[in-house]
User: Which sequence fits this backbone?
């Protein structure tokens, strides 16, 4: 950012939920709760971002997060460009910067980025004047997922203060878990995590969460049970004997769910490995809010684009 | 926000005057548009939505029939969103009737530049094709920037462009003008 940077009185980027205030999270969730009315209309589009350009650059495979962001931008009338890049050619910072300079030459207003390297979105946010939204960086953060999770919880529970959220699975390698932990702690919720010792080490307590190693210890008193997706390729490395054993020890089935609070919310960031993280009767049962999470993802992304996008277009910056 | 340190606040309509004006507007609406079932009132959030409810109350009291009331929040249709400042808080658009073919009275508390009305018209069109739209306002303060005028006007007030007009429909309310004298 040079000295010609115009005065900003608000946030430019959404890189992660660490350090984002309760007031700001509340503003984003309130905006999302209102803006989702657009998605229920006959004409599912408002002119808010007409003439704006949003580029999405996914350096990791993703279908639905990318589609959700694309649709969010389109519902606000922005033009959307998808930038495809194979992760192998862009692992190095220099190459990412070159890619970003190319994108910058199109004068975009926002970049949605998913990248295997933690901190990649932050680097671009510092270097360029447009808004950057982190759609997942390595094992670091995935703020829009946590925001949509919190919106879904808030729809059912009201205030999150004092609520108890159990996150089950590979906490250590999960950007979804990290963003949720930061956001939920800021909103005053209690967070308890459960998973195998290798995926859920005691050191996680430094993030302000309780650490357990058996799912049965966290199910009973939880208001929300959030099951993380298990990446099968990671199971072997993590000293687990395999998918079946993981499902037996950490999967949510109907017997475990019966011991939970009758109003408990069951969440999953998708896509679900049926029979691994949860059995089909749980995934399709009346406590599951998985599809509400998907709808709210669209709303949260619309809200962020509305709140973040900056000054009147044109070329305000020095060339 | 206007810097109020050098600001003078004057009352231009008392709460009683606002009440009487609302009563007259309600009578005019029914007189010119006919049965309260033949039109709907759509208030612009937030001041216009309050006025629309008051007009509906008044029409219900005199006619025994309450017109349908809706609201439009125009934030997503504004032409001044990207000033680099904090974004306005969104309100609710609630149109509990079919907009297509409807006779709509758009209601706002203050008519000023006309930009809010333009945005509201654009938003209503995204819900359907109304048969007609008329505009009712409590106060027309002048300084129009678009070719828009009101069909029903409570009171015309002459103001400076930099004045702020505050409308409060509460018990101790009224219409007040805050003018900045010193400037910056």
Assistant:
């Amino acid at each position: 950012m040079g000295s010609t940077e115009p005065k900003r009185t608000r946030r430019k980027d959404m890189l992660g939920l660490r350090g984002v205030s309760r007031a700001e999270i509340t503003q984003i969730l309130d905006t999302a709760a209102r803006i989702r009315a657009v998605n229920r209309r006959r004409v599912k589009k408002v002119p808010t971002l007409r003439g704006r350009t949003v580029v999405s650059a996914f350096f990791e495979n993703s279908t639905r997060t990318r589609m959700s962001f694309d649709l969010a931008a389109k519902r606000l009338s922005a033009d959307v460009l998808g930038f495809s890049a194979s992760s192998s050619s862009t692992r190095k910072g220099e190459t990412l910067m070159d890619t970003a300079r190319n994108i910058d030459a199109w004068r975009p207003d926002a970049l949605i980025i998913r990248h295997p390297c933690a901190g990649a979105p932050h680097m671009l946010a510092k270097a360029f004047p447009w808004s950057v939204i982190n759609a997942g960086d390595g094992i670091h953060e995935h703020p829009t997922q946590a925001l949509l999770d919190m919106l879904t919880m808030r729809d059912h529970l009201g205030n999150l203060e004092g609520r108890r959220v159990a996150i089950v699975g590979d906490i250590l390698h999960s950007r979804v878990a990290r963003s949720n932990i930061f956001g939920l702690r800021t909103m005053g919720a209690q967070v308890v995590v459960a998973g195998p010792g290798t995926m859920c080490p005691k050191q996680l307590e430094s993030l302000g969460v309780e650490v357990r190693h058996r799912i049965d210890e966290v199910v009973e008193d939880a208001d929300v049970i959030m099951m993380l997706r298990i990446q099968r390729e990671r199971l072997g490395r993590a000293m687990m004997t395999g998918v079946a054993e993981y499902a037996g020890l950490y999967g949510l089935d109907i017997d475990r769910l019966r011991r939970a609070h009758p109003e408990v919310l069951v969440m999953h960031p998708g896509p679900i490995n049926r029979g691994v993280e949860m059995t089909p009767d749980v995934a399709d049962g009346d406590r599951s809010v998985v599809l509400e999470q998907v709808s709210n993802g669209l709303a949260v992304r619309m809200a962020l684009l509305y709140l973040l996008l900056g000054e009147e277009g044109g070329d305000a910056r020095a060339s | 926000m206007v810097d109020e340190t050098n600001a003078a606040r004057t009352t231009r309509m008392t709460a009683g005057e606002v009440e009487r004006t609302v009563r007259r507007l309600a009578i005019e609406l029914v007189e010119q548009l006919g049965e309260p079932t033949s039109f709907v009132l759509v208030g612009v959030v937030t001041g216009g939505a309050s006025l629309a409810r008051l007009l509906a109350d008044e029409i219900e009291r005199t006619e025994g029939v309450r017109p349908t009331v809706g609201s439009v929040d125009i934030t997503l249709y504004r032409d001044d969103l990207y000033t680099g400042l904090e974004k306005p808080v969104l309100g609710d658009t609630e149109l509990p009737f079919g907009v297509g073919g409807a006779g709509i009275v758009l209601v706002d508390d203050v008519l000023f530049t006309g930009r809010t009305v333009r945005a509201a018209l654009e938003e209503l069109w995204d819900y359907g094709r109304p048969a007609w739209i008329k505009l009712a306002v409590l106060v027309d303060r002048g300084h129009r920037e678009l070719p828009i005028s009101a069909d029903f006007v409570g009171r015309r007030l002459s103001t400076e462009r930099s004045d702020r007009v505050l409308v409060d429909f509460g018990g101790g309310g009224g219409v007040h003008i805050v003018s900045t004298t010193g400037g910056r």
